[in-house]
Amino acid sequence: MAVLNVLVIEDSQEDTLLMIRELKKAGYSVNFEQASSAATLAAALAKGGWDIVFSDFTLPGFSGTAALAQVRKHDAEIPFIFTSGTIGEDTAVAAMRTGVDDYVMKNNLKRLVPAVERALREVSVRSARRRAEERVIHLAYHDALTDLPNRYLLQDRLKQAISSARRVHEPVALLVMDLNGFKAINDSLGHYVGDCVLQQVAARLSRVMRESDTIARLGGDEFAFVLPRTDGEGATAVARKFLRSLKEPILFEECSLMVSGSIGIAWFPEHGATGESLLQKADIAMYAAKTGKLECAIYTDERDLQAHRRLTIITELQEGIERDEFICEYQPLVNLKTGRVTCLEALARWRHPRHGLLPPEAFIGNAEQTGLIEPLTIRVLEKALDDWNTSYSHLQIPIFVNLSPRNLQDPELPDRIKDLLRSRAIPPSMLGLEITENFVMSDPLRASKYLTRLHDMGTTLAIDDFGTGYSSLSYLWQLPVDVLKIDRSFVAELARAEDTIVKCAIDLGHNLGLSVVAEGVESAGVRDRLRKLGCDAAQGFFLARPSPAQETLRWVEQQQGTRFMAGGRG
Ligand code: C2E
Ligand code: MG
Ligand code: MG
After folding, report:
1. Which of 78, 289, 316, 398 is the most buried (most CB within 10 A)?
2. What CATH number is associated with residue 216?
3. Ligand 1 contact, 467 CB (< 6 A)
4. DSSP string of 392-406, one letter each residue
C-alpha cells in the first residue's frame, strides 16, 4: 500500500478528515498533519518528509496564497493543491500561474484522488529531469575520474575568491601541483593503474584540505588548490601538508607505489590580480620546483625570466632539430692491452646559429624536460649511423650512442632503431647504446625487459657513469649489459694514488662478466695504473679528445698504423 505524507493547511478539522478519507478509500496509507497559521506551517515544514500539500484558499488570519509562498520558499517542487469551497474560476487560473499544481472544490472531492495522482506523477517527472540537468552541469564542472572540480570550476572559484578577498583586503593563495614520475607509472603499469593512483591521490588531498579550500584536477597529473585568506607563508605550510599526505605508499593489488609532487605557489595580490595570471605564475613556480628538485617553490620574477628563457630554448631546440643543426663528435675507446681502438662514442653537439658549437649540457637537460629528447635522440642516431657508413664501415668499429632515461620510456624506440639500422644496411653489432644506471634503478623490472628487447636485436649495451647512481648490484647482475663504464670522477682519484673504488668496480664488472671501461683518462700515469688493475679499455683526453668524424678517423688510422709498425719492430 502506497504511503502518502500529507500536509493539510486548513482550519476545519472536518474538511481535513473528509479529504483524508478520500485518499484512504483510494488505497493510500495516509500520514497527515494539519496546520492553520504561518507558525504551525513553519513547524510542519521544518519537520519535512511531506509528499504533497493541500491548502484551503481562505483561512482566518492566514491565506492560501501566503501559505503557497511559504511552502515554495521551503521547497520549490512539492505538489501543492488548493482545496476550497470558495475559489472562483478566475482565482483558480491565477493560482495555477503562481505555482499551484491543481485545485479541487470541496464539494467535488471525487476529483481529489486523480488530482493527487497527476500532481505526484508530474513532480516525479520534474525531479528526474532536474536530476539529469544537475548531472549534466556537474559533469561540465567536474573531472569524471576523480569527481573533483575541473579547470573551469577552479577558474570560477578563483575569480570569486579574488573578488571577495579584494573587498576585505585579504590574500588568496593558488597552488599548482604536478606529480613526479607519473608518466613512468602510466607507461610501465598501464592507464588503469595510473587512473587508480590519481583517484587515491585526489582522495588523500581532499582529506587533508580545509572546508573553505577548493581542490581541482587541471588535467593529467596536475592538481590545483585555491586557499582563501592565505599568503605565501601559509601556502607553503599547506603545500607541505599536502606533500606529506602523499608520502605513504599507494597500495595497489600486489605492488606499492611511491608518488611525490612538486608544488608551485602564487598569491593575490602579490603576484597577480586575476585568476589567469595567478594560474600562470603558480605554474611557472611549479616548474621551477620540478627542475630545481624542490618540493615547492613560490613564484618570483627571476623564475618568470627562466621560464621565458626556457620557452626560447624549446622553440630553438625544435627549430634546431628541424634545421638539422645537431652533429656528433667521436671519441675513441682504446683497449689497454692491445692499444687498439675498440669503439667510438658519439657525443652530440649543437651547431647553434648564434651561440656556436654547444656541448650536451647546454641542451640535453632541456630536451629531456620538454620531451624533445625523443626526436633529438633519433637525429643523433641517424647522424652517427650515417657517419659510420661514410667514415668507419671499412674499419668495422662499433659506435656507441648515449640514451637518456626518458628515451627508455618510449616503447617505440627499439623498433625505430631496428629500422634505422636496416635502412642503412648496418649490422646491429656495430651499434652500442649507453644507459645511465639511474634509469635502471627507477624501475628494475621494466628496465630489464626494455634492455632485453634492445639486446636481443644484437646491439651492445653499456652502463654509463657507473658509480654516480644508486644501482644495487643484484639488479645489475640480472641485466643484459656488456660494458661497464666507470665514471670519470672515480678515475680521477687514481691520479692521487687512490685506487680502492676503481679496483672494486673493475673486479665487480669482471665478476659479472662485463668488459670494464674507464672514462676521463687524462694522463699516462692514470692509464698505466688502470692497465695494472686489469681495466679493459680507456677513454679520455689523454688518449684522444672528441672530434668530428673525419678527424677521429684520421686519428684512428694513424693509431692503428703506428701500432702495426710498433708490432712489426717488436
Ligand atoms: P658521457 O656519456 O659520460 O660522455 C663522456 C663525456 O666526458 C663527454 O662530455 C666527453 O667529452 C667527456 N670527456 C671525455 N674524456 C674526458 C677527459 O679525459 N676528461 C674530462 N674531464 N672529460 C672527458 P660531453 O661531450 O660534454 O658530454 C657530456 C654528457 O652528455 C655525456 O657524458 C652524455 O651523458 C651526454 N650526452 C652526450 N651526447 C648525448 C646524446 O646524444 N644523447 C644523450 N642523451 N646524452 C648525451
Ligand atoms: Mg656516454
Ligand atoms: Mg660517462
Report:
1. 289
2. 3.30.70.270
3. no
4. ITTTT--EEEE--GG
